[in-house]
Request: fold
Amino acid sequence: MRAVLTGVVVAVVLGLGAAFVMDTQMQRTAQVAFQTGGVRL
Reply:
């Protein structure tokens, strides 16, 4: 039982960490994501 609870806690912590990283580091607006040196959308 203790191993199951530990697994659930680890999964929750990893999920929250991944959500934080994806929210702060990976999301960009379309203008920023598809901008190059010579072309802007």
Residues 2-33 form one domain.
